[in-house]
Amino acid sequence: MVSGFQAGAAASGLKKSGEPDLGLIYSQTTAAVAGVFTTNQVQAAPVAITRERIKSGTCRAIVANSGNANCCTGQRGAADAAAMAKMAADALNIPEASVLVASTGVIGQLLDIGKIEAAMPSLISSISTDGWPDFARAIMTTDTVPKIVTRDVALGDASFSIAGVAKGAGMIRPDMATMLCFLCTDAGAAPETLQRLLKTASDQSFNRITIDGDTSTNDTVLLMANGQSGIVIEDQEAVDRFQEVLNEVLLSLAKMIVKDGEGATKFVEIEVTGADSIADARTVADTVANSSLVKTALFGEDANWGRIMAAIGRSGVPIQPAAIDIYFDRVKMVENGQGCGAGAEAGATRVIKQPEFKITIELNLGSCSALAWTCDFSIDYVKINADYRT
Amino acid sequence: MVSGFQAGAAASGLKKSGEPDLGLIYSQTTAAVAGVFTTNQVQAAPVAITRERIKSGTCRAIVANSGNANCCTGQRGAADAAAMAKMAADALNIPEASVLVASTGVIGQLLDIGKIEAAMPSLISSISTDGWPDFARAIMTTDTVPKIVTRDVALGDASFSIAGVAKGAGMIRPDMATMLCFLCTDAGAAPETLQRLLKTASDQSFNRITIDGDTSTNDTVLLMANGQSGIVIEDQEAVDRFQEVLNEVLLSLAKMIVKDGEGATKFVEIEVTGADSIADARTVADTVANSSLVKTALFGEDANWGRIMAAIGRSGVPIQPAAIDIYFDRVKMVENGQGCGAGAEAGATRVIKQPEFKITIELNLGSCSALAWTCDFSIDYVKINADYRT
Questions:
Q1: Average pLDDT of chain A?
Q2: Cβ proximity of A350 and A302 under 8 Å
Q3: Cβ of residue B68 closer than 8 Å to a chain A Cβ
């Protein structure tokens, strides 16, 4: 799919279901690498190791498991994460420090490293150029669908490819990279360039989504670039084009995560316009996107704009309630802070019955805007999270 | 119940159920008054009027309705709130400006003031010294039980009484007074003293509870003091004693609100100890208390301490993950940031099956602590809030 990269998966038994829970991405040559990580101060063991290892600017492989977050597991957890990388390095005959690790699943349980060791041979033998769907499935937890985005991009006379794989679907909120996402490209780039490109793209995608307002301890986004396409992302034209594609790939994956949010039945884009600053616009959008009362109303298909007004009012951003307009798609529901009546209500009710729609909040204060993507808060969200460990 | 105060209720039809939805508290003499109000920038019409009127330091009556918040209703809403007060003032033959108003219910619908006008005679004739339970019922929305606390307090050779009535049960989070609460005492006090006492007591009670993290647009706490007991809250001993009782009354009401939280099946006290500052302790306690993932785990009776660690880690307060201990009642579940094993897990699981318990988070950084009270996040919470307006 992307020249020089292979992927694969195996079932180690970490998932009680017996589904694949171990994934491997392998680069045939040394790749430049960049990463963004959770801002949570409680960080999983693999995050610490991977964060350290990408400082070299290069890597060869990523080994990831689902079913166990390897977080709050102390020195034993750190040793397990290192051992997981070493097993893959030994089997692939590459330097230990060139293997990155990532984990996702339950926090606070020791990793059964014996299971991973036992599954390593089948993991290694599974990798192939078309093993991405298997890899995507192996990193799923409460996700219901695998999430892959690929693009072939022409640039001058040549072309490069990029592939991205991500998993959600809980502990998601817009505060740095908020899930696992692995990206590979056969373009080449200096690690510093890659890092800048990745940070920008994450900020406009993974940092703008929320499912439940909780930030995970394991969030990791890694981008590997092996240069095998012959294209180097160096001059401004190439940087701009790559940024554009990367933004689009990350945004596609981010939206797939929200659509597959735990128990989600609605996918809602929230746009805040007319703010005094982008920061203000983001804060208002995030507050509305995270409000339990707004999200339960979305689930109930109730165009309860009063809860949107209440969330805006408690966001901490200075506003003028009597200046606010709110739209459900193109239906103006609120004008100057007051409801637009029965006709608007009927129109908004039609909009909210759709699986996807947009809520626009015009603050009428300034000229800055921001987007956020959220889902509804359903009975199934509660069921999934009440029963998660059992 | 409290000398010189009367209360009553009537059904005006604002509630579709036909239940009482109009309440009146009347003081036979002019009472000193203090109030604390929502910090939400979107504020209901009655909040604006009442906030303005208590600047005089005195009042005679409070008229409150449920079923409609009279919020985001513009000039018409302001006129309706004023009209509601004037109707009561005229019927009671007291100055219009001495009547305070409060509303709770759906945001964004105009008040049907004709219904209130029609019900005013029966409201006026309903008031009596033992009408408090009727009043408490009339201000309920999604509450399932009325909330009243009364105390008779000896002070020197004399005694005074205090009665408080509150309603929850959604849009509750610890950020200023977060619901409706009306308090009456036959002690006397200067308005400035009352205001200081009320602010302190609210800060330790209503500002420490959360149900869903949403701050209402209508939150109002009012304290009336008519002095009929002959006791004046003036010297330090009286101030201290009154503060003590007021704190206790407000805390009792605050806990009743959380216990009756929408869909709640668990009442959980969260104590954070060993913080560098009280502000830090409060922030950590609030973040854990508001986490959707922690609250759904409480509903699932799953002692999922990893989610507590994750919430602590995203609170924004500088912490040392490896220094943290967590207890479920007296069962130590986490030591130095790691789980205490199967025995502790079994013990914590027994604790979490109780309807009420305590989670203690020892940060081991400093000597400051804070308490918060929360409930679980249940399937019924989602059902109640998905169907609220329908």
A1: 91
A2: no
A3: no
